[in-house]
Automatic annotation (TrEMBL):
Gene3D superfamilies: 3.30.70.20
Source organism, top-level taxon: Bacteria
Cofactor(s) needed: FAD
Name of this chain's protein: CoB--CoM heterodisulfide reductase iron-sulfur subunit A family protein
Domain (4Fe-4S ferredoxin-type): residue spans on this chain: 262-291, 295-324
Keywords: FAD, Flavoprotein, Iron, Iron-sulfur, Metal-binding, Oxidoreductase
Pfam families: Fer4_7
Family, per entry: Belongs to the HdrA family.
Amino acid sequence: VTVENLKTKKKQKFEIGTVIVATGFIPFRPYGYYAYGESPDIVTLAELQELPPNDQLLKPSDGKPVKTIAFIGCVGSREPGVKGHEHCSRYCCTATSKAAADLRVRTEEVLILYQDIRTYGKGHEEFYRLARRQHVVFSKFPREEKPAITVKNGKIHMKWRDELADQELIFQPDLLVLASAMIPPEDIAETAKMFGLTRSGDGFFNPEHIKLAPLTTHTAGVMIAGASQAAKNASESVIDASGAAAKAVGLMAKGEVEIESTVSHVIPELCSSCHTCVTVCPYGAINMDETVDPSVAFVTEAKCHGCGTCAAACPSSAIIMYHSTDNQIMTMVEAYLCSPAQLEGGEPQ
């Protein structure tokens, strides 16, 4: 593999036997949500953390101290039917509660609008309790009736219905913070293609098995860790990274590993260069050899799982399965259906 240093532009080649994919996430930029982008005083939770440190929290628009602040949770998360945004980002409730509790001592009023509060994880509930003790106001809004945010003359106006009080409420914060979703990096499709990885509906990488093999993938020697597999907090990501590293060390300690014997094989003379096998392979194990004309398909055996999808789909019968050819399968079928006398060429009994 060739690795390029993005700063020095120097390239260096390495021989590798295992890969740990830890591509992380990027915070969702919620344009189209809650007037984001219409005022510099409407920011995401990630952008709040990037504001210049100061004894007082200052408004990005005019530098004046922030007296009132509002948070809105689940921005771009838990949206049924919206591709890539149906998942819970998991960290938002805890991070919002902690940020609200920290800022409460520097402001006059802090409000959190939420659909549900999910401060899961060891010790995370304490952040919610701390915010309550600091007199942070929590208000639950209906899932089907989002808060209405407008910006008039540089001021932010909020209107929503409190589901528990069943009342229409209004608020005018100096700063509005949106707890936006964790989403995969923009180039994750390229990474998936490179390593033959599959992706879930939320766009992150699929593990080999969510319970039994959460760190390995369907591509032998490739592990995933942290937020490359799903939206996770820092402590979960560290645990994943330790487990993936242990898996990688275990493979490297062996020196060599055995792969499945039943893998696909392309007969070049029969290949019609139709690309059907490349399209249907669920593991990205088949590519086209462009060094010959016309190009022919070839199988990367380390990626192949011997599922036979390509062999079944090939219109030219140019793909066979090692140790599972048509003749071998028919022989097994005959052995199962025919009597011993028939197998020896005799008449059926």
